[in-house]
């Protein structure tokens, strides 16, 4: 079933064909999972869905995949995504688009080809990896990769799966795995979870190690967990929620909060800026139902709140992520690894041609935007302005949330426990419709997820009907409380 | 009027690199390329930097020795540019909040005829790049062993007004780093790299790069100063900031202000700030610093009664200094005069002739003392003493053999056999009648020439003084008109 669905929905960038030995005594022994293809593993290529890393095999393992393997979970494949995480549709991939399994797709859009490579020790070279070795000391790895059909057709009613962790969301939604690992920089776990009606949890910034996560924008990147089963999300989170000395932004052990006890009266804030205007009718109806149901419960208190900086958070977010991305992607020059054009003219160094050919259009657009924001012309007016908006937004969150804040221990005894808002303003757009809009219009889909990313807060998408979901967020560090309340709301069965 | 400021990069001698755990092999040139590189050093996707504390400590020691104030908070920034040996596409440096600021270094009577203070603007910690090697045409190789080695960059105020001051500062800076044990101090290996900022009569500032040695620095400044003076005389002073390179003979334009690189500095989004409790740690670090270069010079000059030149040689190498002190003390105990010349001239000279570097182990101190005692006791001539020294450093196994036995073995024992001396001097005088005539005719200094010939003819067996006396005796000229 897994390859069959992948032909239609193009969920994976690589599907593992080896049955690797597993720890059957681990706490996740009976589970299978999919891993977003921007997290490095030794047993499969890691491509970020980009031509520039199309054949790249990492010589080391990410902390996330190592911890999951240690607990016996089975990795079935690496999932397709928007190139380097840049997008919210999963249409921007070198391996072709990922489609939304909630909607019918009649014909196949890709073929699957078998590939293989060999690994040994810590040394990885193109020769060792992709050309057959005589010696038996190399480990053989076989996998399937998608190849886009030249004349594929997407059904007219097909809607986008969301992104950038679209492949991970689709793998869960299509019941191919028990859970999937995605990454969330500005909503990349929550939005596709919303569009595919699953839970998608983005923990507090710094809680899950980023060692082995190929960065898009490090000050915002987080590893997230997606599943139909909220209890499994909690279980997987408790395994990944560990300090890692390899990651300089990993939260220290003493600062981690494990408490999940909810107060007898739960105060939930509803940001006016995120809930009233601009919601499509389907979303508005579900939203109204949810709020009504919550008001019926005596120990839930709802408050309408206002965070003035929310209106500026989307432009601030795009300024910061593109700046960091332009810096992070500077290393892909074809000299040490990845795609290299092999030809150049005297006018243009080889790395320039390599980068022109190796990156997709959206990635190049964001590198240019970011380079401008960091230039001597744009630094103060763009980068510093955006940094200031971010600081102000964090202050506003701190002033309304109860806390204590995980790092600065800021407390507000009369503050709120949670913030609740829709994850997306509308149903996922039709693929045909999405392909017509401008890049800037497409950035608007991140409006409701970005603020929590800028502040590093834990947030989860709670599915509520087909391709509709709501976000529950808490103060920095209160991840277990967010998961606990999400579970309680799930048990209310408002669908 | 000439105004100069310096930007000096120095590699720190930490055991590990700046942000990874690979070995720092900075001072070793014979390490095979790309063998001391970790995943981070070649910027593999998904790796992250982690600051090691040792380079930070070495930078703090340097900052204190240069009288800087240490920042409570300093941060790391990314400086972007593309180059084959820059694996990240940016260098991690400290642009906005450097580790230390506002220092100075005094050039004293030991450095310059007239004392001067050079102010230091700031010191920052940063990564070194890899090295590009051009071996054949149209192809370059990159060695990432140097990638991510810790550097400090020190920027002075434009306080220099002469080449002599620049030269004295560089020497003093090198000595200071060596004295602290934070850097090898060598320009030749690239452990220290100097860029010069220069302006004449307050015209635009010129930066000169690619200056591999002190003599290149001096020559480039002189060249650039003359070039600009000529332009000023012509009424066409330079009006634009530009960067120039040194090709060994002249400075050449590399780039002007228009095509200056925009480095797009950005605060590093994942490296935490360095937060220091300055009041606590500064006294603790200060307590670990050795006496300053000036204090040590003063002590050495007074205690050992040696020349400034020799004191500077000792100060450039901690091991050599310790070696000298031990040698000196043992010589004093054995009644041998100050061995400084034997160390700085003969031993270091022999080593450089043999293409060897000084290490304590090249000659055991006790063996050196034994040789000097034997010399003092008249067992050999000074010439043969030098030969034996050269032999001992090139044949370390013979350092176990007692000196008298070696003298016998190589027939180097000083002899005073009058008969042989007579024969040699007679022969030389006979073969050089015109020289003899010149000496007799009132050119007594020519006697040295004959002494040299006699030494050679007797293979150094006779003391020169003996030969001199014998020749004088035969020539019947007055003593004390010549000097050996």
UniProtKB/TrEMBL annotation, chain A:
It catalyses: L-glutamyl-tRNA(Gln) + L-glutamine + ATP + H2O = L-glutaminyl-tRNA(Gln) + L-glutamate + ADP + phosphate + H(+). Pfam families: Amidase. Gene3D superfamilies: Amidase signature (AS) domain. The keyword Repressor does not apply. Residues 24-105, 159-483 form the Amidase domain. The keyword ATP-binding applies. The active site is at residues 36, 164, 188. Keywords: ATP-binding, Ligase, Mitochondrion, Nucleotide-binding, Protein biosynthesis. One of its GO terms (cellular component) is mitochondrion. GO terms for molecular function: ATP binding; glutaminyl-tRNA synthase (glutamine-hydrolyzing) activity. Its EC number is 6.3.5.7. Its main location: mitochondrion. PANTHER family: GLUTAMYL-TRNA(GLN) AMIDOTRANSFERASE SUBUNIT A, MITOCHONDRIAL, TRANSAMIDASE. Allows the formation of correctly charged Gln-tRNA(Gln) through the transamidation of misacylated Glu-tRNA(Gln) in the mitochondria. The reaction takes place in the presence of glutamine and ATP through an activated gamma-phospho-Glu-tRNA(Gln). Subunit of the heterotrimeric GatFAB amidotransferase (AdT) complex, composed of A, B and F subunits. This is Glutamyl-tRNA(Gln) amidotransferase subunit A, mitochondrial. It comes from Ogataea polymorpha.
Automatic annotation (TrEMBL), chain B:
Its EC number is 6.3.5.-. GO terms for biological process: glutaminyl-tRNAGln biosynthesis via transamidation; mitochondrial translation. Keywords: ATP-binding, Ligase, Mitochondrion, Nucleotide-binding, Protein biosynthesis. It is an enzyme of class 6 (ligase). Gene3D superfamilies: 1.10.10.410. SMART domains: GatB_Yqey. Residues 326-475 form the Asn/Gln amidotransferase domain. It is found in: Mitochondrion. It catalyses: L-glutamyl-tRNA(Gln) + L-glutamine + ATP + H2O = L-glutaminyl-tRNA(Gln) + L-glutamate + ADP + phosphate + H(+). Coiled coil: none annotated. One of its GO terms (cellular component) is mitochondrion. Its main location: mitochondrion. One of its GO terms (molecular function) is glutaminyl-tRNA synthase (glutamine-hydrolyzing) activity. Belongs to the GatB/GatE family. GatB subfamily. PANTHER family: GLUTAMYL-TRNA GLN AMIDOTRANSFERASE SUBUNIT B MITOCHONDRIAL AND PROKARYOTIC PET112-RELATED (PTHR11659), GLUTAMYL-TRNA(GLN) AMIDOTRANSFERASE SUBUNIT B, MITOCHONDRIAL (PTHR11659:SF0). Subunit of the heterotrimeric GatFAB amidotransferase (AdT) complex, composed of A, B and F subunits. Allows the formation of correctly charged Gln-tRNA(Gln) through the transamidation of misacylated Glu-tRNA(Gln) in the mitochondria. The reaction takes place in the presence of glutamine and ATP through an activated gamma-phospho-Glu-tRNA(Gln). This is Glutamyl-tRNA(Gln) amidotransferase subunit B, mitochondrial. The gene is PET112.
């Amino acid at each position: 079933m897994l390859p069959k669905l992948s032909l239609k929905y193009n969920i994976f960038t690589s599907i593992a064909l080896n049955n690797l030995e597993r720890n059957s005594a681990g706490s996740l022994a009976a589970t299978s999972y999919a891993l977003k293809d921007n997290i490095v593993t030794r047993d499969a290529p890691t491509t970020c869905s980009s031509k520039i890393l199309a054949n790249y095999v990492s010589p080391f393992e990410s902390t996330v995949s190592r911890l999951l393997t240690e607990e016996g979970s089975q990795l079935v494949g690496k999932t397709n995504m928007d190139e380097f995480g840049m997008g919210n549709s999963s249409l921007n991939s070198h391996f072709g688009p990922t489609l939304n399994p909630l909607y019918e797709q009649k014909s196949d859009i890709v073929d699957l080809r078998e590939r293989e490579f060999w690994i040994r020790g810590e040394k990885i070279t193109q020769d060792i990896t992709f050309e057959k070795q005589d010696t038996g000391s190399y480990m053989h790895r076989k996998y399937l990769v998608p190849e886009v059909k030249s004349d594929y057709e997407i059904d007219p009613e097909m809607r986008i799966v969301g992104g950038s962790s679209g492949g991970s969301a689709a793998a869960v939604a299509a019941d191919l795995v028990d859970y999937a690992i995605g990454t969330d920089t500005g909503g990349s776990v929550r939005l596709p979870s919303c569009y595919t009606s699953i839970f998608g949890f983005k923990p507090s910034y710094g809680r899950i190690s980023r060692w082995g996560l190929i960065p898009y924008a490090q000050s915002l990147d987080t590893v997230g967990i997606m599943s139909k089963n909220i209890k499994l999300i909690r279980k997987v989170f408790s395994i990944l929620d560990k300090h890692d000395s390899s990651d300089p932004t990993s939260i220290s052990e003493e600062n981690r909060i494990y408490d999940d006890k909810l107060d007898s009266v739960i105060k939930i804030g509803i940001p006016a800026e995120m809930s009233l205007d601009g919601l499509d009718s389907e979303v508005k109806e579900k939203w109204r139902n949810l709020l009504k149901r919550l008001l019926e419960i005596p120990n839930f208190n709802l408050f309408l709140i206002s965070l003035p900086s929310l209106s500026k958070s989307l432009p601030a977010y795009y300024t910061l992520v593109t700046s960091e991305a332009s810096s992070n992607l500077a290393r892909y020059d074809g000299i040490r690894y990845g795609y290299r054009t092999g030809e150049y003219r005297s006018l243009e160094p080889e790395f320039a041609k390599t980068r022109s050919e190796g990156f997709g259009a959206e990635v190049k657009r964001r590198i240019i935007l970011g380079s401008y924001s960091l230039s001597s012309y744009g630094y103060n007016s763009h980068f510093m302005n955006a940094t200031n908006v971010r600081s102000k937004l964090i202050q506003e969150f701190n002033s309304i949330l109860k806390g204590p804040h995980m790092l600065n221990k800021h407390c507000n005894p009369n503050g709120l426990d949670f913030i609740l808002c829709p994850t997306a303003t509308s149903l996922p757009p039709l693929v045909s419709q999405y392909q017509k809009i401008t890049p800037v219009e497409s950035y608007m889909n991140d409006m409701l997820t970005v603020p929590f990313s800028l502040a590093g807060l834990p947030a989860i998408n709670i599915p509520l009907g087909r391709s509709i979901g709501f976000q529950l967020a808490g103060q920095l560090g209160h991840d277990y409380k967010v998961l606990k309340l999400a579970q309680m709301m799930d048990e209310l069965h408002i669908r | 009027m000439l105004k100069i400021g310096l930007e000096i990069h120095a590699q720190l001698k930490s055991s590990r690199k700046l942000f990874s755990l690979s070995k720092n092999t900075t001072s070793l040139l014979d390490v095979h390329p790309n063998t001391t590189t970790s995943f981070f050093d070649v910027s593999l996707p998904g790796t992250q930097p982690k600051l090691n504390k040792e380079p930070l400590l070495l930078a703090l020691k340097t900052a204190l020795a240069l009288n800087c104030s240490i920042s409570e908070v300093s941060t790391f920034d990314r400086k972007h540019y593309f180059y084959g040996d820059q694996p990240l596409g940016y260098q991690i440096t400290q642009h906005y909040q450097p580790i230390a600021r506002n220092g100075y270094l005094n050039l004293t009577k030991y450095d310059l005829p007239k004392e001067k203070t050079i102010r230091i603007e700031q010191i920052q910690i940063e990564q070194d790049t890899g090295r590009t090697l051009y071996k054949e045409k149209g192809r370059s190789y990159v060695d990432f062993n140097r990638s991510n080695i810790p550097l400090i960059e020190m920027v002075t105020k434009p306080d220099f007004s002469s080449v002599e001051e620049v030269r004295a500062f560089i020497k003093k800076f090198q000595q200071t780093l060596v004295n602290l044990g934070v850097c090898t101090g060598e320009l030749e290996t690239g452990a220290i790299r100097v860029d010069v900022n220069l302006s004449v009569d307050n015209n635009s500032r010129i930066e000169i790069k690619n200056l591999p040695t002190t003599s290149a620095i001096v020559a480039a400044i002189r060249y650039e100063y003359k070039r600009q003076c000529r332009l000023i005389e012509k009424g066409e002073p330079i009006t634009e900031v530009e960067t120039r390179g040194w090709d060994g003979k002249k400075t050449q334009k590399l780039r002007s202000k228009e095509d200056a690189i925009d480095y797009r500095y950005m605060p590093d989004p994942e490296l935490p700030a360095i937060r220091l409790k300055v009041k606590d740690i500064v006294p603790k670090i200060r307590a670990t610093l050795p006496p300053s270069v000036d204090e040590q010079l003063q002590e050495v000059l007074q205690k050992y009664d040696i020349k400034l030149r020799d004191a500077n040689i000792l100060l450039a190498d901690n091991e050599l200094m310790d070696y000298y002190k031990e040698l000196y003390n043992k010589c004093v105990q054995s009644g041998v005069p100050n061995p400084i010349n034997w160390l700085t001239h003969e031993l270091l000279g022999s080593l450089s002739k043999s293409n060897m570097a000084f290490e304590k182990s090249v000659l055991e101190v006790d063996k050196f003392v034994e040789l000097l005692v034997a010399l003092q006791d008249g067992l050999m001539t000074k010439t043969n003493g030098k030969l034996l020294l050269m032999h001992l450093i090139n044949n370390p196994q013979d350092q176990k053999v007692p000196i008298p036995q070696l003298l016998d073995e190589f027939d180097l024992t000083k002899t005073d056999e009058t008969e042989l001396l007579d024969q040699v001097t007679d022969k030389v005088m006979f073969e050089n009648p015109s020289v003899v005539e010149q000496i007799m005719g009132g050119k007594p200094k020519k006697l040295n020439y004959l002494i040299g010939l006699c030494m050679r003819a007797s293979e150094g067996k006779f003391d020169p003084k003996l030969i001199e006396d014998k020749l004088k005796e035969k020539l019947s000229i007055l003593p004390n008109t010549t000097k050996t």
